[in-house]
Inverse folding.
């Protein structure tokens, strides 16, 4: 079945970078957008950016522009999200999600989430 | 950025109740709106897309509607498994944005 499986929880110090993977299976990797979304404790969901796995084109939230980089490895059907210059405000659960054009680009499948804690 | 204002932010209800959640967009988004359900410690799950289309496998007690920039999610008869937080999302314009959420708790 269609699955998105993310890498495990991570603890980082302020100023460091974090890299999270999202391994997909069960569908044609090139054909669906992959989005990254985060959720700080008690906060609303925040869209971070997306990648077209076929072309590698990306678009990022202006708020995170310059700190976030989304890539993909087609041979592994995997997307990666790197966030740099971490502060305590980046402590969140990070999700990848598949966007489906036939569903009005809604996100039909989500990864299980990766908890990132930024603490000195 | 397009702001999505959800109301109420908190709702206390009983099993069997009819519940309506509203999501108001700060500008026109046509029907590019989705609704998700999220339970504690879990990823969101898609309920409704294109404002009113039920995702496959979602119970028919969930429905969505739209009028201009106001969107509603209705649960016709609340079930125990429906106690969760619900989010709307606009997929019309980057950056994609989410509403603030509506938490439904057991009365």
């Amino acid at each position: 079945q269609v699955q998105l499986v993310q890498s495990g929880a991570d603890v980082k110090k302020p100023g460091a970078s974090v890299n999270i993977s999202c391994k997909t299976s069960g569908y044609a990797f090139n054909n669906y957008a992959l989005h990254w979304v985060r959720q700080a404790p008690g906060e609303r969901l925040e869209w971070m950016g997306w990648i077209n796995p076929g072309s590698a084109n990306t678009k990022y939230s202006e708020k995170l522009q310059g700190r976030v980089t989304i890539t993909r490895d087609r041979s592994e059907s995997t997307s990666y999200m790197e966030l740099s210059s971490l502060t305590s405000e980046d402590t969140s659960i990070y999700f990848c999600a598949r966007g489906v054009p036939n569903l009005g680009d809604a996100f039909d499948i989500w990864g299980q989430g990766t908890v990132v804690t930024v603490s000195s | 950025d397009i702001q999505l204002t959800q109301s109420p932010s908190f709702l206390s209800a009983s099993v069997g109740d009819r519940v309506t959640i509203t999501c108001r967009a700060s500008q026109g988004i046509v029907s590019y709106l989705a609704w998700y359900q999220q339970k504690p410690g879990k990823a969101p799950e898609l309920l409704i897309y294109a404002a009113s289309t039920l995702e496959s496998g979602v119970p028919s007690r969930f429905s969505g509607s739209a009028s201009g920039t106001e969107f509603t999610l209705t649960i016709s008869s609340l079930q125990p498994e429906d106690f969760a937080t619900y989010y709307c999302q606009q997929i019309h314009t980057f950056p994609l944005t989410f509403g603030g959420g509506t938490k439904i708790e057991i009365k």
